[in-house]
Amino acid sequence: MIPPPNVTGKLHVGHALQSSIQDLLTRWRRMQGYNALWLPGTDHAGIATQLMVERQLATEGTSRRELGRELFLDRMWQWTEQYHGNIREQLDLLGASCDWTRERFTLDAALSHAVREAFVRLYREGLITRGEYMVNWSPKLGTAVSDLEVETKTVQGKLYHVAYPVEGSDERIVIATTRPETMLGDTAVALHPEDERYTHLHGKAAILPLVGRRLPFVADAMVDREFGTGLVKITPFHDPNDFEMGKRHNLPGITVIGLDGRMTAEAGPDFAGLDRFEAREKIVQRLRDEGYLIKIEPHTHNVGHSQRSGEPIEPLVSTQWFCDMRSMADQALAAVRDGHTRLFPDSWDKTWEHWLTNIKPWCISRQLWWGHQIPAWYTEDGRCIVAHSLEEATAEAGTDRLTQDPDVLDTWFSSGHILFFWVARMVMMALHLTEDIPFRAVHLTGLVRDAEGQKMSKTKGNVMDPTELVSEYGADALRFTLASLDSPGRDIPLNRDQIAGYRAFGNKLWNATRFALSRIPAEARVRETIDPAGLAAPERWILSRLSRVAAEVDARFETFRFDEACNRLYHFFWGDFCDWYIELSKPALSGEAPRPRVGDVLLTVLDRALRLLHPVMPFLTEELWQRLPGHEAIHPETICLAPYPRREEGWEDDAAEAGMEALTQVVTRVRSLRTEMGLGPKAKLDLHINPADPSVGRVLQEQAPLSRFLARVETVALGPAPEGARRDLVAGVEIGVTMERVEKTAMSAEERGRLEKELDKLTAEIGRAEDRLSNPEFLGKAPAHVVEGGRAKLAEMRERQVALRSSLGLG
C-alpha cells in the first residue's frame, strides 16, 4: 500500500525513491508467482490542501468564512477533482504498477465510515476524550498542529534577565527568560528543592513586575539549577513544562496570548490587542523604564516552528480531542520486540522503542473544515453525544436539536507523511482495532540529499524534480540510481552524473540486445532450460555465473539490500555478459571458431538477465524482451508476469568459472602489457601461458583460439615463457609475451615526436595534481569524492607516464 501522498501535491525525489522501491518489490513478488497487490491512494491532506484553496479564494477577494462551510467544501472538492490526476500521472511516469481500479482517497465514503467506526469505538473504550490541554498552536493557520508538524529550528534570540521583588523584603531575585511577553501570565516561581541558595525563599512569594501579582515559590525537582539563576517563572498556560508543573502544584493558569497570536484582555489594558512580538518589545521597554530589566544577552536556542506556515509555534491551552496512545504503543512495542514486525535496518529499533516508550496523548482535532468532521454532537443543555451518524446521535440524545462539533480529525487519524511515524500509527491502530499487525517487515530508507550531502530545499536551489529527471535521463535510469544508493541506515547523496551513468547502462542493454539479434542464427531461440552437457567452457561459464547472480539478487531483495542487488546486476550484465560473453561469442557466431548452441545460450542468458533487471528497470526490459525470439515460451504476453529467474544448481560449474576467470584475467593483462610496452594494435605478439592448476590449464588450452582472438596475439603456447619474454603472474597463471624486435624499433620520427609531446604534457599535469593533493587546505575543504577522484586520476596518469617512457625507451 502506498503511504498516501497529498492529493494535489507534486512528487519530490523522496517520493520517487519510495515509489521505485515499492514497485520493485511488487514486480519481483508478482514475477515469483505471488498475487501481489500494490494499492494506490491519496491523502486529503487537511491543512496543505485547505491552505491552497484559501489562497485561491484570497485572490478572488473572498474567504472561507464569507463562503460558509458548505460552499467552501464544494470548492475543496472541485479543487481535488481538478488536480487529483497529478499524482497518477507522476506515478505512471515512474513506472508504478499499481492496481488503479482499487485506488482509494482518504475521504472516500467507505474510508470515512471506517474512520467514524474507529473514533466511536475508541471513545467508548475511554481512549478518546475531550478536554483542555496544552497544544501546539499555529496562529496563522488558526489550528492546533501535531508534534510531527512542528519543525525545530535553531535561532539567535535573546535572554532577558528580569528582577522580581520578594514579598515583604528589599530582596530581588533575578529570572532569565527568552519570552518576556509570557511573564504577564506568570502564577508562580519555581526553584529546585535542594538548591541551598534559595532555602530561605521556601514558603514565601515574589511580586510580578508591571502587574503586581503575588507569585508563590514552589519547589520542584524538574528545575535546572544550572540554567540562568536557577529560578524559573511558571506560566502554566503558555509552556508545556510549566503546564505540567502547574498541575503538580495546583497552580492557576492565565491565558495572555490568544488564538490569533495577540495579547488578550487578561494581559492588561496596556498590552491587550498587541501582536505577541510587538508586546515583547513594549514589555521589555517598560521593564527597562521601571528598573526591572537587569541585562539582555544573546542566546542561541531551539524554537518550534509550524511546518506549513513557518511561524513560531505558540503553546496554548485549548479545548481539543485527544487519544490516549499508551496501551496501543505498548502493543506496537511488543510487536517489534517479539519479532512479529521487523524493521529494516534494525538500527531503527531504538528509535521505535524511544518514540513509543515516551509517547504522549495525541491531539487529534484540528480547527479546519476540510477533513473528517468529528462525529460528536452537542445538545442545547451541553451534553456531548459521540455516534456513527446524526440519526444515531439523535436517537441517543432524545432530541434533534443537535450541533455537530465543527473541528475535523488530524489527517494522520485517517491516513495514519513522515514514513516512520505513519508506520507506527498504522501498527498501533491495526493491533488495537483488528488484533493483527499490518506489516511483518518494514523497510525504512534514508533521506535523499544532494551530491554534497545537503538537505534539498528551494532556498538552496538544490532540489531535484523527479519528473524533470525522468524527462532528461529516463525513468529506468532514475529508478536504478535510487535503488542502487539505498544502503541501510544511510542517507542518499544523489547527483546527475550517477543518473547519467545508469542511463549509459541502459544504452548498454539496448546495444547488447541489438548485437545479439543481429548475429544469432535463424534457428536460435530463448529456451526455458538448457542442458550444459556438451557445451564449451564459455557457455558453461556464463550459465554458471547467471545462476549464482540470480541466487544472490533474490537473497538481497529478501533482506531489502537493493544496493547490493543492483550492484550484482550491473556487474553481471556490463562485465560478465557485455564485456566478456558477447566478445567470447563473436568468433563462434561468425563461424571463425564454432561452438555448440552459442545462439541459444546468448538469447537465454539475455532473457534471464532482462527478467532479473525488470523490477528495477521495467520500461527498457519490457521493450527489449518482447523482441527476443522464443520469449513466448516463457510468457505469452509480458515480462511482468514471466517467472523471476532462480538459481539453477545444474548450471553451476566451478571448473568452468575458474578456467574462464583465468582466461579473462590473462587477456586483460596482455592488453595492458601491450600498452605498457608502447606497442600499437598491429604489433605481432606471441603468448606463453603456464598455469599452476591443471584444470585451469585444460580450459586455457581448449580455448586457445579465444585467447588468441581476444588478446590479439599470433600464437598461444602452453608452457614456460622463453628467455627475454615480458613476464607476469595473474590468477595463478604465469604469462610471457614475446615479439619481433623490428616492431619495437619501427617508430617513425613523427610518432616519436607525438609521444614525447604527450609525455611532457602529462608530466606537467602530474606535477599539478601532486601539488593539489598534498595541499592541506585543499584536502581539508574538498568533498571526499573529489579527493578520491583526484587520486584515481593521478594513478591513471602515472600509469600512462610509465607506458610512454617505456615506448620511448626511457626506462
Helical proportion, percent range:
40-55%
Quaternary structure of the protein: single chain
Number of strands: 26
Rg (CA only) = 36 Å
Uncertain runs are: none
Measured distance between first and last alpha carbons = 66 Å
Can you tell me the overall shape?
elongated
Spatial order of the strands in the main sheet? 4-3-12-14
CATH superfamily of the largest domain: Valyl/Leucyl/Isoleucyl-tRNA synthetase, editing domain
Q: Might you state the CATH topology name of the largest domain? A: Isoleucyl-tRNA Synthetase, domain 2
Residue fraction in strands: 15-25%
How many domains is the backbone divided into?
6
Name the CATH architecture of the largest domain. Answer: Alpha-Beta Complex
Mean pLDDT: 91
Alpha plus pi helix count:
27
Question: What is the CATH top level name of the largest domain?
Answer: Alpha Beta
The biggest sheet, with number of strands, parallel, antiparallel or mixed sense and barrel status, is: 4 strands, antiparallel
Structural account:
The chain is α+β, with helices and mostly antiparallel strands. It has 6 domains: 124 residues, no CATH class; 129 residues, HUPs (Rossmann fold); 157 residues, Valyl/Leucyl/Isoleucyl-tRNA synthetase, editing domain (Isoleucyl-tRNA Synthetase, domain 2), CATH 3.90.740; 148 residues, Isoleucyl-tRNA Synthetase, Domain 1, CATH 1.10.730; 84 residues, 2-Layer Sandwich (hypothetical protein PF0899 fold); 60 residues, Helix Hairpins. It contains 27 helices and 26 strands. The strands form 9 sheets. A 4-stranded antiparallel β-sheet has the order 4-3-12-14. A hairpin with a 4-residue loop joins strand 16 and strand 17. Helix 15 packs across helix 18, helix 16 packs antiparallel against helix 19 and helix 19 runs antiparallel to helix 20. It is elongated and about 110 Å long. The model has no long low-confidence stretch (mean pLDDT 91).
